[in-house]
Structure formats: C-alpha cells, structure tokens
Amino acid sequence: MSLDDLGERGRRASRERSADRAGAKPTLKTIAELTGLAVTTVSRALADAPQIALETRMRVRQVAEEIGYMPDRAAQRLRTGRTNVISLVLDPHEEILGYATSIIDGLSEALRGTPYHLVITPHFSDTPAIDPVRHIMRNRMADGIIFTRTEPADERVKLLVEHDFPFICHGRTELATAHPYVDYDNYAFAYHAARRLIASGATKLSIILPPDRFTFAQHMRHGFMTAVREEGVRFEIAKDVTLDSKSDAIRDYVYKQMAQADRPDGFICGGEVSAMAVMASAYDHDLELGRDVHLVAKQTSGLFDQVRPRVETIYEDLSEAGLLMGRLLLKRIGGPVPVGELQALQTL
C-alpha cells in the first residue's frame, strides 16, 4: 500500500470519527466542516450543479457517503418543491417472467447518479387502476409517475395530462392528446411470429391474447390477423383464456384444443408462462415440438436459452424499456419538452 493510500485511509478514518463523535445525524454543515467548504457549496455539489468543479463534487459525495449523510427530504421538499422520488406503479401478474425485476433494473440504471429514488407502488386488479395514481399526484408523493398496462382511453393518462403532472407509461393509448410513452411493437411481434409459424409448415394458427381492455391486445390481434389474411391460413383466437389467466387454466385450455381432430399446429404465445403451458400440453399428447406442434414465444428472460428442444422466440428487452422510461421521465421533469421527444417504440 502506498503512502498516498495510507494518508487517504487516515483522513477517511478521521472524518468517520468526527462524525461519530458528533453523535447526531450528519448534516450539510457536518460535510462543510469536514471539507472546509461553505454549506451552500456543499448543497450545490450534492445537487450536481455544473457550476461546481467535478473534483469538488466528487469529494463532497465521497465525504457524504463515508459519514452516512442522508438528505432531509421534508426540508428539501419545502425548499425546492420536489420530492426527488419517482413512483413506479406495478400490477402483479405472472405471465411475463421477471417483468418487475427487469423494469426496475433499467429504471435504477437511469436514476443512478441522480438525486432521484425509486419507490414501488402496488396496484391490485380488484381496485381501479387510477386510484394509486390519483393518490400519488394529489399528495405530491413523487415528482413523476411511471405505470404499465395502458388502455385505449386510459383514465390515468387523461388525469395526468390534465394536471400537467410528469409521467411516462409503458404502453400506448388511442387518446387524441399525445402523451409520453415507451412501448414494444406488439403488432410486429404477432405479425412476424405468425409468418414464422407459416414458414415452418403450420397450417392452423392459434394465439392467446392479453385481456381486451389493454391496448397491446389490439396491437397483437391486428398483427396476427394481418399475417393470417395475407397467407390465407386457418386460425383461432383463444376465447376462454387470456395471458392473464393462471398457467393451469392456459394448460387445460390448450390441452383440450390439441385433443380435437382439427387441432391448431402453430401457437403464438405472448409470454413464457403460456409457452410452457403449450409445451406441457404437447408433451401430454405425445406431440413433438417442431414437428407436430410449432411454437413462437415472446421471451423476456433467459428461460428458453436453457430449454430443449429449442423454442422459437422473439425478444422484448424490458430492462431497456425501464432505462428509456427513466431517462425520458427525468427529461420531462427537467422542464417543458415537446411530447414527440418523450415517446419511444421498441422494435424487433
């Protein structure tokens, strides 16, 4: 270890002892005393003000971390009007494996190095989707909101646009008023999945869609129907189950379809759970995947990388979606931005 390293370790230990001796929660004044800087300079350095030299900002952050400094959010909110919180409203559902984890991973990367913290707000299917959003907005619990599973005439979007409250949604709507969003091209997914099945020799296609109330259900339906009409192949759209159905219900439904004389031989699955249900049903009927039954699934995790025989997949990058939503929301919070600059469509 060099003398410089020893010296820095000694200075660090000294600062930690000073903070411990204070016996109170570290404040901006504590950091100012340890660094020899003015309190206002420390405050601006922690806010990452570009007017403060990068070296000074890094030194202030290091000291703040060493002594366990945490900003007083109540005082910060009174002073700036901001909470430095981003709220992610999530619906728990099992169809998309790792959905929440991947979205949070991307959002965390977008917020890294900023003063913003991510707070998860759950929304349950037995309560109106607008309730948690209205609660956050009315009580100013966050500076921006991110939510998922949009509907064509989404009441959450209407409310937030009306009140000019910063938000990004994962999914689009059919509202006349343009709004910020990040979405995946589900039309292209269903279209190309159907074309792949037809090219593999499938003669009757089946698709399990999301619940009709969601916008991406319409996108998937449109893409699927465009492909089957272009090729003139037979098809069916699942009526008794959706992508939100329990995996057992999907498996039972597909099992019955495969027992029919005129069974589908090509399946499009909008998630890995429904794809596994199709594979289980095929196995139970002694049908061989890739010969008797063809399958294209949307992949959002590494699950199918380990599955044999190989499953045909189309990837949706949820971590990238989280990253894009975080960056666009920070941009919106930073000031007025044309809506067109706050929209992103992830393509295949």
Automatic annotation (TrEMBL):
Residues 1-23 have a biased composition (Basic and acidic residues). Residues 26-80 form the HTH lacI-type domain. Signal peptide: none annotated. This is LacI family transcriptional regulator. Keywords: DNA-binding, Transcription, Transcription regulation. It comes from the Bacteria. Residues 1-24 are annotated as: Disordered. InterPro entries: HTH_LacI, LacI/GalR-like_sensor, Lambda_DNA-bd_dom_sf, Peripla_BP_I. SMART domains: HTH_LACI. The keyword GTP-binding does not apply. It comes from Neorhizobium turbinariae. The keyword Flavoprotein does not apply.
